[in-house]
Amino acid sequence: MIANWVENTEAGYLVSPALVWGMALALSVLAGAWAWYRWQEQRVKKDDQKLERSVREQADTFRYLMEAAHEGIVVVQNRRLVYLNPRMCEMTGYTEAELKALPTFLPLIAPEVREVMLANHLRRLAGNASPRRYESLFVKKDGTRYPIELSGVAIVWQGEPATLNMVTDISVRKEAEHKLQYLAHHDSLTGLPNRFLLHERLKQAILLAHRTGQPLAVMYMDLNGFKKVNDTYGHEVGDVLLQQVAGRICSLLRDSDTLARMGGDEFVILLPRITQSQDVQQATERIRAAMAPLFRINDHVLHCNFSLGVAHYPRDGTTAQALLRQADSEMYADKHRYYQR
Which is catalytic among the residues 169, 222, 257, 265? Predict the structure, then answer.
């Protein structure tokens, strides 16, 4: 028993070796736990810093993307604009404060399409089927109207339902489409409707004449000796002559009439809604009177003769092809008489 104790002469008491080892073990465990805790604390701190840095970088990236986007980006909540990017201000002409102060987004939309856009917005909020992308018409602060393409989705913004919308100004695209459509339907030299557009208008005029019982007339016109003008004075003079001929005839026509260039020196005049039998004769006389004066092109003075053939609906045909064919035949008969003089 006495051998199990160690005498401590300096302190005046005896210490059990088991107790010493137990205390040492406990201290070691505590030290290890403290070291593990500190390691975990540092790791969590680093993870938090890494997460915070990642969130900050993502927020910076999102903000950069929003500010640099070519499209207008806007969050609509309770019909008001609660978030928007700088491009939205550029497109609309409003400042950010002015846009957020609007009681509703409707002033940005052309009146005739407001009902449709509001219905799409409400359907999207309700989770019902609505177009994800569609075209519409916006109005700037100064009243300028411009076409847009809008795509939107329902989101939750600060705990409340909203819609995230991307708005693209498509004015340039629409202008390009309009130019392409114009070129597809008009003669590049004179700006007159071309063969394709004439056929479309003639078909519509025939349908209207069939419903109303009101006749129409088609005139086929060809310039006499035009090739000689090109050969003598050059194609540039010939082109100007065609333009001047088109200008003279256009000045005689009603808004409902059509003058088209079929190609080369051939023109067709569509006269819908003929009310009297004398209307076509009077139109022919006006054309001959307008073409009688000399044409002055650069240093040249030209006299332009022409041949003209007329076809009447429904007497000479009830289809566009039949009327054009008959008018063309009458025109060649008139040309034959001209050269037989």
Answer: 265
| Known active-site residue 47 | no
Please say whether the beta carbons of 122 and 129 come within 8 A: no
Instruction: State mean pLDDT over 16-26.
Output: 72
- DSSP alpha helix (H) spans, 74-233: 86-92, 96-101, 114-126, 171-185, 195-212, 226-233
How far, in Å, CA of 273 to CA of 206, rounded? 10
Mean pLDDT value across residues 63-89? 84
Instruction: Write down the pLDDT at residue 275.
Output: 82
CATH architecture of 188-340: 2-Layer Sandwich (3.30)
Q: What superfamily in CATH does domain 69-173 come from?
A: PAS domain (3.30.450.20)
Greatest mean pLDDT among 12-26, 66-80, 306-320 lies in: 306-320
SS3 of 166, please? Answer: strand
**Delimiting residues of CATH 3.30.70.270 domain(s) in the chain:** 188-340
**What is the torsional sign of CA 308, 314, 320, 322?**
negative
- Rounded to two decimals, what is the model's pTM? 0.70
Question: Is-contact 85 72, C-beta < 8 A?
Answer: yes
Q: At what angle do helices 195-212 and 320-340 cross, to 10 degrees?
A: 110
Query: Tokens 């023109």 sit at which residue?
Result: 267
Residues of the chain with CATH 3.30.450.20: 69-173
Average pLDDT, the chain: 88
Place of tokens 């809008």: 150
Is the predicted pLDDT of residue 331 greater than 70, yes or no?
Answer: yes
| Mean pLDDT for the stretch of residues 34-55 | 68
**Closest among 180, 178, 181, 88 to 138, alpha carbons compared:** 88
Q: What is the pLDDT of residue 70?
A: 79
What is the spatial distance between Cα 271 and Cα 254, in angstroms, rounded to a whole number? Answer: 9
